């Protein structure tokens, strides 16, 4: 079934997009990730212009994060204060990101930078996850109990000035790394169309030593607002948010996430992480492949720039 | 699909030459559009557009010999286009060179009575800026290097042809009677919206006689058009609406699936 995307100005297959949203939603439910980092590359593979794929990806992230965050809001398993400071950094990072995005687009280098960022981030995160999970699987086979290392000693981050107390997280840290982390996530959100949970969660756990029970809720809280901010600014500055496209992805995604979560509960944590790592690496390889292989045409057209 | 009202019909025009009956009158060509709007709906996947037209003061002898030829062009709205070229840098294919052209027809669809070389000489097509290879492509920077310009012009045409936006259809114009003709033009699925210009050229024995034109607006139907306009004119509110839609969808999804 064909459907016309009003902003992308092209006809696409509705079933393909619903299935794409559903598959990513399934994976995000299974692995507990937002899925933005899979949606944008998949849209690019499906010939949606990267500028529209990124902005629409940010819009789609809101729906999946909001759906996931509701449970955490109810249980109160989030740190509003920490989320707020992260968000302040996020708004600054996202604003810079939008400016860079528009500049790269004018230069004609946006597609390249988006691909490069994806290859770098997905490649390194996927690689690290694969190594870690394979080790965990080996340990489990060897009969040892896998334990999440959470050392109590202070690192360089705790020596920075401007300290602030976050009660829900039971931490007392400088706001500099918190703002910085928020800004990096915001920047990536506006250039890559991701929520950034795949960087935020490990950073909160390992760098800021936030207790695991409030990490996911806080991360989702900040992602919703940064993605919302990014969507509005992309829409205002670049007119690249396609609501028809976003809606199809959201519907598929929200439905898929529920089934994914059920399957995820039955799989072992380290196996799940190994699977996700393989998937992330596969997307990174495919993007890298497109960069290095001679394109079908070395010429491309862009309309509207003056 | 095109809406039925999009079918373009003929306005039969009165013969203009009657007042000058003594002088040898030259032939004329007319096309008329019954509607000046074509709407693209959500399931649009390309379509054929039919234009009817008439010749005036037809010479019966030449008509019998089939020496009248008609070329009909549907030209899309002029746009500024950047053509970029990728070269290999550190093993990666990167955009390194670009040329900006202004007032490039977004689409260019041609229908003609016969094979182009049987209608008239290439020089005549060039003079009339007719057919995709003769579309006038003006660079924004007049100082642009000549060989670069040639390369990028060819690339622009080739990319447009590959996307089905610059097309030619020999046999796309058929005579229904001695002076009535019908032109069938192909609209690509990604046909640009905006004001298109339909132009008809009449040739007699390979000599250009007359040209006529009519305007036609191609727009998105109903909801698609409103979304597009809203996104461009009220882009801030559009962004807020997109955020709201996402929140409602996420919330509803939670409600629906929790009840199961």
TrEMBL record, chain A:
Localisation per UniProt entry: Cell membrane; Membrane
Family matches, as InterPro entries: TM_pro_TauE-like, TSUP/Inactive_protease-like
Main location as per UniProt: membrane
Top-level taxon of the source organism: Bacteria
Keyword terms of this UniProt record: Cell membrane, Membrane, Transmembrane, Transmembrane helix
Key word Membrane present: yes
Regions crossing the membrane: 12-45, 85-104, 110-131, 171-194, 214-233, 240-260, 272-293
Membrane topology term: Multi-pass membrane protein
Assigned protein family: Belongs to the 4-toluene sulfonate uptake permease (TSUP) (TC 2.A.102) family.
Name the UniProt record assigns to this protein: Probable membrane transporter protein
From TrEMBL, chain B:
Signal peptide residue numbers: 1-21
Matches recorded under InterPro entries: CHP02186-rel_TM
Keyword annotations of the record: Membrane, Signal, Transmembrane, Transmembrane helix
Pfam families: Alph_Pro_TM
Keyword Signal among record annotations: yes
Keyword 4Fe-4S carried by entry: no
Transmembrane segments: 236-257
Protein name: TIGR02186 family protein
């Amino acid at each position: 079934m064909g459907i016309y995307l009003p902003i992308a100005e092209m006809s696409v297959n509705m079933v393909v997009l619903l299935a794409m949203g559903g598959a990513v939603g399934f994976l995000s439910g299974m692995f507990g990730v937002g899925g933005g980092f899979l949606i944008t590359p998949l849209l690019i593979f499906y010939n949606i212009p990267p500028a529209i794929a990124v902005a629409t990806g940010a819009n789609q992230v809101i729906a999946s994060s909001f759906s996931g965050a509701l449970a955490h809001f109810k249980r109160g398993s989030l740190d509003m204060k920490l989320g707020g400071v992260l968000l302040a950094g996020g708004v600054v990072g996202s604003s810079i990101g939008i400016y860079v995005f528009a500049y790269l687009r004018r230069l004609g280098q946006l597609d390249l930078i988006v691909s490069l960022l994806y290859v770098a981030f997905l490649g390194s995160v996927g690689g690290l996850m694969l190594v870690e999970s394979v080790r965990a699987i080996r340990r489990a086979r060897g009969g040892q109990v896998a334990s999440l290392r959470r050392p109590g000693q202070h690192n360089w981050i705790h020596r920075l000035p401007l300290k602030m107390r976050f009660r829900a997280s039971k931490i007392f840290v400088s706001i500099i790394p918190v703002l910085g982390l928020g800004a990096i996530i915001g920047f990536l959100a506006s250039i890559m169309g991701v929520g950034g949970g795949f960087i935020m969660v490990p950073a909160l756990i390992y760098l800021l030593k936030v207790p695991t029970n409030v990490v996911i809720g806080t991360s989702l809280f900040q992602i919703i607002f940064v993605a919302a901010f990014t969507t509005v600014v992309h829409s205002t500055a670049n007119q690249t948010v396609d609501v028809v496209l976003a809606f199809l992805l959201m519907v598929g995604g929200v439905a898929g996430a529920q089934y994914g979560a059920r399957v995820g509960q039955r799989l072992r944590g380290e196996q799940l992480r190994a699977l996700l790592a393989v998937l992330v690496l596969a997307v990174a390889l495919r993007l890298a492949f497109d960069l290095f292989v001679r394109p079908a045409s070395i010429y491309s057209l862009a309309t509207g720039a003056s | 699909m095109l809406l039925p009202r999009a079918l373009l019909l003929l306005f039969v025009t009165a013969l203009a030459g009657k007042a000058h009956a003594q002088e040898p009158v030259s032939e004329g060509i007319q096309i008329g559009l019954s509607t000046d709007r074509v709407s693209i709906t959500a399931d649009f996947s390309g379509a054929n557009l039919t234009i009817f037209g008439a010749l005036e003061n037809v010479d019966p002898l030449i008509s019998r010999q089939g020496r009248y030829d008609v070329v009909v062009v549907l030209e899309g709205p002029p746009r500024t286009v950047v053509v970029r070229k990728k070269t290999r840098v550190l093993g990666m294919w990167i955009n390194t060179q670009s040329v900006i052209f202004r007032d490039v027809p977004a689409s260019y669809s041609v229908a003609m009575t016969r094979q182009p070389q049987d209608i008239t000489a290439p020089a005549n097509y060039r003079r009339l800026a007719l057919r995709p290879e003769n579309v006038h492509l003006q660079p924004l920077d007049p100082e642009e290097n000549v060989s670069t310009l040639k390369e990028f012009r060819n690339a622009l045409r080739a990319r447009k042809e590959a996307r089905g936006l610059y097309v030619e259809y020999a046999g796309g114009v058929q005579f229904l009677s001695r002076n009535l003709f019908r032109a069938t033009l192909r609209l690509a699925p990604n046909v640009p919206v905006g004001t298109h210009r339909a132009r008809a050229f009449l040739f007699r024995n390979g000599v250009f006689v007359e040209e006529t034109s009519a305007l036609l607006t191609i727009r998105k139907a109903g909801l698609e058009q409103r979304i597009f306009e809203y996104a461009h004119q009220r882009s801030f509110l559009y962004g807020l609406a997109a955020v709201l839609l996402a929140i409602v969808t996420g919330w509803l999804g939670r409600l629906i699936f929790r009840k199961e």
